[in-house]
Structure formats: C-alpha cells, structure tokens
Amino acid sequence: MKKLLLITLLVTALPNCSKKQPYSLFKESKTQTPTKQIAIETTTEQNKIPELDFEVQNATGKTLFIACFTYIQKEKFTQWRWDKSPVYKLTPNASTFINIDTIPDNDYRSDIFGYLAIFENEQEANESIYELVDDNKKIDLDRISELTGKKVVVTVKKYGFRPAHLDFAIVSKEKKRLPPELDFAIENQTGKMLFVTGFMYEIKESTRSVWNYEKTPVLKLEPGQTAMIDIDTIARKRDRIYMSGFLGVFEEHEEKEANEATYELLPPKNKLSLGRLSRIQGQKVILEVERYGSVSDINEFAIKPTASPLENIEAEAPTGVNL
Fold first, then answer.
1. 216 contact partners, CB below 8 Å, separation of at least 6
2. pLDDT at 273 over 50
3. Do 199 and 266 meet the contact criterion of CB atoms below 8 Å apart?
4. Cα atoms in the 13 Å half-sphere on the side-chain side of 156
5. How are beta strands 184-188 and 226-229 bridged, if at all?
6. How far is the CA of 54 from the CAs of 85, 102, 161, 208, 297, in angstroms?
7. Which of 58, 233, 251, 264 has its CA 20 to 30 A from that of 153?
8. Could you read off the pLDDT of 168-211 as tens digits, one per residue?
9. What's the pLDDT at 208?
10. What is the 3-state secondary structure (H, E, C) of 249-317?
11. Which residue in 194, 237, 200 sits closest to 216, CA to CA?
12. What is the DSSP letter of 206?
C-alpha cells in the first residue's frame, strides 16, 4: 500500500496586508517611474518612427478619387497582406498626403511597396480592393520608402493614335539646381508648310525607370518659321547624355498622320534621325529639301548655332496642335 505524504501549508500573516489593500508579491521600487510618465515616453518614442506618408498631386485636369494599396507586414510574426488607405478626393491641380500605416520595424518598412488606384467614381473607389482593380486604373509606385521627400504627380499620357492612359512623374520637393535642358530650335526652310513632332528615347527619374519613346507636341511650321522642341527635363547626367531622338516631319495634308503617329509605326519618309540630343543642345535644326534624281523630294536637315537666345525663339513659337 502506497503511503500518502501530507504536506501542511502554514499561512503566516504578511505585514501590511489587509482586505482593502492586497499585498503584492513584487517589491515596489522607490525609483519606479509613474505610469503616466511611461505613457508619455512611449508616445514620444513612437513619434520618432519614420512615416511612409507621401504627397500626390492631380494634374489630369479632372476630379479624381485616389486610394493607395500597400503590401505590408505591420508586426513580427504577422502575415504580409494588402492594406488600403482612405479614399481622397482630388480636384484638378489639388494635392494631398496619402496616409500609410506606421511600421515600427525598419526592415519591414523599407520593403513595403504599393500601387495608387485612381478612379473617377467615388463609390467605385470606396468599394475597391487591390485584387479587382483594373490595371489601367493602377500606378505602380514600387517601394514606398523611396518616395520620401518627393511628390507623385498624376498625369494623362497620349501617344499617337493610342488611347490616353494614366501616367505619373516623381518630383523632388527639395530645391535643387536645375539640370541643363535639351530643348532645341527648329527652323523650316523647305519652302512649304510642315507639321513637326519629336520622338525622344529617354528614361525619366522614377521608381520604375524604363527607356521608352516620348512624343513631343505637334508643331505647325510655316515656311521660314522657327519654333522650340520642348524636351522633358532629365535630372541624371548619364541619362541625359545617352538620350537620342527622331523628328517626325509631315506635309500640310498629313496633319492627321502627324497627330496619330507613333515612333514604332513612323514611315521612313517621315523620319529624320537626330542621334544623341546632347550634340545639338542649344543649337538650331534647319529643315531643308534635297532633290535626288527622279526620286521625290527628300527631307534633310542641318545643325547650326542659334543666332538668337532660345528664350526669344520659344516666345515666337507657334501653338502646338493638341494631341
């Protein structure tokens, strides 16, 4: 038979113990920080966490409803998931700051990426989820942390005959010295009226930088008239040096072709290769016509120094044809 060992617990009255004031097993430290002070210190510490909020400007010319979808992990051991910001109403040229959740961990915060979802209908914006938003209504922002100190400008891009679509530019809010412009003058010495546009192979400073062709506004040039080809401002020197371009030159009866032209479908007879734009910076491109035997007239050009400042040429430039 097993013997049972009975242990008797003797409860001794503890000092300063009463029903109204329960005794704590943990000694109270004389240097203990008051609860209120701890709360204040915690709040101050949280305020030091870098925020991911960024500014967005509406440059589309119409009222938009904008939300930001971010792929986040808020705390350790939690799952990565899509998070949606509040929906913001932006009238033309208005700006606002997009509120992104505070992420305490530095590593997680730097890896967060997101998309801007852009709508013209408020109800559609409020009910939207990332998985069902049409790709044509999304802008890829890549890593949100890269937008610190910058502004996202939402625009509409029209390229030839293709439908207009959303585009954006990343603009630094810091005051920096402006890089040299690649704009150049163009003069019509062909003896006939022309429609002229430019196709520039460039890369813009953004989080999803890709080399592609950008089309300049179509200009109507009368014989002997001079205008400016306006090139996008490219901040990085290396990208500016390697930019190249083509002119699309169309006759008076080809206005529609000029407006709908894209570089990829531009006929050889309408195309003039300029090479690297840095070599014609601050100079003038003079359009001429050359006769080659029984073949029809061929468009040619010469590059000459400008006789007048570019600012004066720009002031005299004709109004561009709306795309």
1. 197, 198, 199, 200, 229, 230, 231
2. yes
3. yes
4. 15
5. antiparallel
6. 12, 13, 34, 17, 54
7. 264
8. 888 777 666 667 788 899 999 999 999 999 999 988 765 456 78
9. 55
10. EEEHHHHHHHHHCCHHHCCHHHEEEEEEHHHHCCEEEEEEEEEECCEEEEEEEEEEECCCCHHHHHHHC
11. 200
12. S
Q: What angle do CA 137, 102, 132 make, to 5 degrees?
A: 25
| Tokens 């412009």 found at | 181
**Tokens of residue 173, six digits:** 């809010």
Model confidence at 40, in pLDDT bands (50, 70, 90)? very low
Beta carbons within 8 Å of 38's beta carbon, 6+ residues apart: none
| Cβ-based neighbours of 99, under 8 Å, separated by 6 or more | 53, 85, 86
Cβ–Cβ contacts within 10 Å for residue 21, how many? 8
**Beta pairing partners, 305:** 283
Kindly indicate the confidence band of residue 297, based on its pLDDT and cuts at 50, 70 and 90: low
Whole-structure pTM over 0.70, yes or no? no
Q: How far apart are CA 30 and CA 38, in angstroms?
A: 15
Instruction: Identify the pLDDT of residue 172.
Output: 77
- In this predicted structure, which of 39-43, 66-70, 96-100, 240-244 has the lowest mean pLDDT? 39-43
Instruction: Choose between 149 and 70: higher pLDDT.
Output: 70
| DSSP secondary structure string for all residues of 147-162 | GTTEEEEEEEE--TTS
**Structure-token match 């954006």, residue found:** 168
The helix (H) or strand (E) run that includes residue 97 is strand 95-98
- Tokens found for residue 225: 């008239």
Residue ranges and CATH numbers for the domains of the chain are 54-172 (2.60.40), 184-321 (2.60.40)
Structure tokens at 9: 């617990």
